[in-house]
Amino acid sequence: MEINKAKVNKKKSIFKKISEVLLTMASKPSGFIGLSILVFHILLAFLSPFLAPYDFKAIDPSLMLQAPSSEYWFGTDSLGRDVFTRTIMGGRTALTITFFGSLIALLWGGLLGIFCGLVGGKIDDVVMRVVDAFLSIPWILAMLLIVSLLGTSTQVLIPALGFFYGKGIVRVARAATHDVIAKDFIVSARARGHSNLSIIWNEIIPNVRDAILVEGAMRWSWMLLGFSSLSFLGFGVSPPTPDWGLMISNARGLMSFAYWAVIAPIVGLSSLIIGINLTADAFAKALGIDRSTKAPV
Amino acid sequence: MSEIIQKVKNLSVGFKSQKGHEISILKNITTNIKKGETVGIVGESGSGKSTLALAMMGYVKQGLFKMGGECIFNSFNLLNMNNRELEKIRGRKIAMIPQNAGQALTPNLKIGYQIDEALKLHTNFNKNEREKKISELLNKVRLPSPETIALRYPHELSGGQQQRVAVGMALAGNPDLLLLDEPTTGLDVTTQAHVLELLNFIAKDTGTSMVYVSHDLGAIAQVSDRIIVMYSGEIVLEGPARDILKRPIHPYTYGLLNSIPKLSLAGLPGSMPGSQPQPGTKKEGCSFYDRCNLAEEKCKKNSPDLEYINELKTSVRCFNYKKLLKDKSKKQLSTSRNEKNIKINEILNLTDVSISYAKQKLLDQILNKITDTNPTVKDINIDINKGETIALVGESGSGKSTILKSIAGLLRTKEGNIKFNQDRILSNDLKKRNSSDLRAIQLIFQNPDESLNPNHTVEEILAQPLKLYFGLSGEKLKNNIIDLLEKVRLGKFYMTRYPRQLSGGEKQRVAVARAFAAKPDIILCDEVTSALDVSVQAAVLNLLQKLKEDFGTTYIFVSHDLAVVRAISDRVAVLYQGRLCEIGPSKNVYKFPSHPYTEVLLGAVLEPDPDIKPKLVAEDIVEDKPPEKGCCFQGRCPRILGDKCKNETPPWQIGDNGNAIRCHINIKELENIQNGN
Ligand SMILES: Nc1ncnc2c1ncn2[C@@H]1O[C@H](COP(=O)(O)OP(=O)(O)OP(=O)(O)O)[C@@H](O)[C@H]1O
Ligand code: SF4
Ligand code: SF4
Ligand SMILES: [Mg+2]
Fold it and tell me: B444 to chain A: nearest residue by CA?
């Protein structure tokens, strides 16, 4: 009974903490804008199948490259598909894949980083070297290789992206852990005789969690860009699934006279990236984490 | 009347809070600095003393802004000048010496080069003149063999030497005004005394005006002609140094002086309740109202003005200063400590303990052997009685914390053993100690910011030992936590606070409560008050003493501050370079005969009294390794006998007072020389 009660209290406080952080984020204009964009995109991703006025894959040669009109708000593309329909649905795959990709990046990057920070010494050196070596290969080449070997299914893309974007998180988690384990409260816990696991869980994780989460949020926006580049190159989502990267790539050649087919997905993609970026920044500020000194990738 | 070189007029500095309110941290400061005088600015952390000193060189820290007033240096209105104009003044006419000289010097440039750069910037000397000036400056700050020092990198110098170089660099431009922000804080006692002496010499020699900012009245007392006492962004008392120290007529200063432990006085210093209000929290009335024992009804609503008393040449901000004026008798509020006779009932025995930080060779690692002929800590034999407070004193690097860590099991001993309760040898390996041994020994650390997990509430922090050792949960756990908080005089409502929502003193109380939660037999206190302000330090010391009397806990108290040690300990052990020099009942260790090292330490203590000057009997050399053979103190000993001290380990001698001294000089003889016969 007692334990249950304690748990309920704890949950409530986590919920409270989240809402507090969200409120702090939204209290600054940039955070508010970022959050609104992100929420808009997430809602869109969920609701777009119900909102879409047309079938996203209905090809109609007679409607090829129509300019925007009251019927086709954003015009039609080279296969006569409705650009508006495809645009509002074009973020779904990217958002889903990169979201889960980021989770994987967070998980392996965070855990490995914490592990390296904890053990230090030779093991840490070796692991970091290996990670560095693996990831010094240009990621896009490596991705192309993986995709061409294993295909472009979600089961391949999510872990592959997660793997390549976890490196930065390893570094951040490792550095944060290094900082924390030198602190006296860890010494104090050790001297009391707490087990290693309890020290990791109670003393270390709460103190590195914020930094890792912020890094993860940042990585999300970069991963989105990366994934869209893959789609653009034809290695991401396979047609006819609507996807901004793919749409931009397809419509790019016709840009000079059918600008509408390319502008809408560009706006969609860049607004989402900006939204996530602003949100991550506000998130970092709300948690009091200084990212200014770290360079991207 | 000598000429005024710096005029601060109605200066207010503040910042904008998140909600957009303007909050002042300096309120209407008016003061003058005269040519050739040294002014000490003293106050607790956060009282605004650094902000004031920085404003005197036309600098307002990022995030702060000038709300009003001005700082006029000679004829320059500093706070209205742009950076370009200020550059011509800073370094040339006004120089600043920061707290941590090590950080102010560029690590990868040689000392000589750095001084040369400063000279290039601030003077018009040619190369030859500059070279001459460099060795002149290094000579002036009394660094041995300037030529070799000039070729060294900052990290090849000790903290005291770095601070001397910083002073030398500041003097490069021949400034009219030298600003020093805590220039000796963080240095060892002996080094500190030497740097202060140097500053005094330079003030006399060059006639430079100095503004000396410090929280340490002892240091201020040694250098200042005039003292400004700051509290919560205001000047509360300003006047000639001697008067301020001998007859403080502001209740805050009075209490502050009382809360400083003194060598001449056994027993705990009197403490002031509470702590300084945070900027922006105090709306009306006297800012010292909450802590003042002379406070009256009117102090609550009205804030007193700074009033100049002509016959004393002193300004004071208090309605009731006259009460302190009349009070001619110098009362000492010091509460005497129960010096009970401790029953000889040993609880912890350190026998021949040696500890080494040296890296083990692979073979030794496999054989689990530590080979190091010259370990960091060597041959420590101390028997500790139940219920006593034994202090370990010594300068940085003397191995105090190292010994504590091995008692706690955090560090392996190389040789010797540690026996608990006369029957159990404590394992070298923390993991092998059983839960009751772990519980019996608890630690309190120097810096409560680092020793409390910033992500845990006070409740969670205190719950940890209670859950771990006693398996408490639910209502029982909560009641226990409340109980503990009350013991350290914090209310129940502190439970939900995070460490960042507590003041330094409150944090340290939580750390104390956490240690007592385990119901320990022994508490290891590692410099537990050195990160605290003096008035808060006194309160924490009093609390520790009270708890100890209630629970019969044994304290092993590590400190570099001999006055604090005097106040709290029953017995003192003096360490140099990890070797024991002297051990005995504390009242006797503070009396001659003393080990020559104890004598040096005692001589360097800075008392907040202009009449007690430190006695500098030894050079402030820093040794990084103990000597291989002979006496550990041979490198710095002012009384060294020659080859005997260099080759033979000195014997233990026990004096009539009961203190044991490890020295080749006969103890009677030692007493005679030290007493000046
Ligand atoms: N950039 C800033 N923004 C907001 N408040 C600040 C800022 N800098 C300093 N303060 C506040 O101003 C007050 C005075 O600071 P100052 O550094 O002058 O204190 P101090 O007396 O030198 O303390 P210490 O002994 O700790 O050096 C403090 O309460 C501090 O928290
Ligand atoms: S004015 Fe009142 S409250 Fe303030 S210091 Fe004087 S007596 Fe104390
Ligand atoms: S033994 Fe010699 S060097 Fe050591 S303290 Fe005594 S006199 Fe000094
Ligand atoms: Mg300061």
Answer: A188
In chain B, count H helices and then E strands: 26, 24
CA of B358 to the centre of ligand 4 (A): 37
The model carries a pTM of 0.80
Domain ranges, ordered by start, for chain A: 20-296
A183 touches chain B (CB under 8 A): yes
Question: How do residues A61-119 score in pLDDT, each as one tens digit?
Answer: 776 766 777 777 777 777 777 777 788 888 888 888 889 999 999 999 999 999 888 88
Q: Residue B401: what residue type?
A: S
For helices A167-181 and A121-135, the axis angle rounded to 10 degrees is 160
ipTM attached to this prediction: 0.74
Ligand 2 pocket mutation pick from B253, B320, B324, B325 by most atoms within 8 angstroms of CB = B320
Residue B429 has pLDDT above 90, yes or no: no
Q: Average pLDDT of B315-334?
A: 74
Question: Would the CB atoms of B433 and A202 count as touching at under 8 Å?
Answer: no
DSSP B529: T
- Burial class of residue B301, CB neighbours in 10 A (0-12, 13-18, 19+): exposed
Among B464, B481, B558, which would you mutate to test the A interface (most chain A Cβ atoms within 10 Å of its Cβ)? B464
Contact across the interface for A188 and B409, Cβ inside 8 Å: no
Kindly report, residue by residue over A175-184, the tens digit of the pLDDT. Answer: 888 888 888 8
**Which ranges in B504-608 belong to alpha helices (H)?**
504-517, 534-551, 562-568, 586-589, 596-604
Give A290→chain B minimum CA distance, Å: 16
**Residue A192 to residue B465, Cβ atoms within 8 A:** yes
List domains and CATH numbers for chain B.
Answer: 35-57+81-261+296-326 (3.40.50.300), 346-585 (3.40.50.300), 591-677 (no CATH)
CA distances from B391 to B178, B552, B571, B574 (A): 38, 16, 6, 8
> What's the full length of chain B, in residues?
677
Residue B511, pLDDT score:
93
**What secondary structure letter does DSSP report for A252?**
G
pLDDT value for B286: 92
How far apart are the C-alpha atoms of B203 and B658, rounded to whole Å?
Answer: 44
| Cβ contact B583:B574 at 8 Å | yes
A296 pLDDT band (50/70/90 cuts)?
very low
For residues B431 and A161, the answer to whether their CB atoms sit within 8 Å is: no
**Cα separation of B619 and B615, whole Å?**
11
Q: What is the mean pLDDT of residues B564-589?
A: 91
Q: Which fold has domain A20-296?
A: MetI-like fold (1.10.3720)
Residues B353-384 pLDDT 10s: 888 877 655 566 566 555 667 788 888 999 99
- Alpha-carbon gap, residue A208 to A180, rounded angstroms: 8
Q: Which of A190-199, B255-264, B553-562 has the highest mean pLDDT?
A: B553-562
